[in-house]
Amino acid sequence: MRFIFIAFLASIGAALAADKAPVMIAAGYPCKGDGTAGNCISGFCLQLAHETEGVCK
């Protein structure tokens, strides 16, 4: 009975964690080209190769 209860709680926790919406960044704010800091609303993050972060355009 305990195992079923723990498995049920784990499945509920996994479902809640998966439903988070991605972070959207407005134009002019810092972003990362790989999307780890969020996604630009415009869909374009200008990040040069030697920079650690770019700017949403």
In a few lines, what is going on in this structure?
Keywords: Antimicrobial, Disulfide bond, Knottin, Signal. The chain is an alpha+beta fold. The protein is 30% helix and 19% strand.
Number of domains: 1
Low-pLDDT stretches are none
SS-derived structural category:
alpha+beta
Strand order of the largest sheet: 2-5-4
Strand content: 15-25%
Strand count, sense and closure of the main sheet? 3 strands, antiparallel
Q: Report how far apart the termini are.
A: 54 Å
Question: What is the helix tally?
Answer: 1
**What is the CA-atom radius of gyration, in angstroms?**
18 Å
Label the overall shape.
elongated
Question: What is the mean predicted local confidence, pLDDT?
Answer: 85
Helix content: 25-40%
Number of strands: 5
**String of helices and strands:** HEEEEE
Pfam family, one: Antifungal_pept
Signal peptide: 1-17
Keywords: Antimicrobial, Disulfide bond, Knottin, Signal
Protein name: Invertebrate defensins family profile domain-containing protein
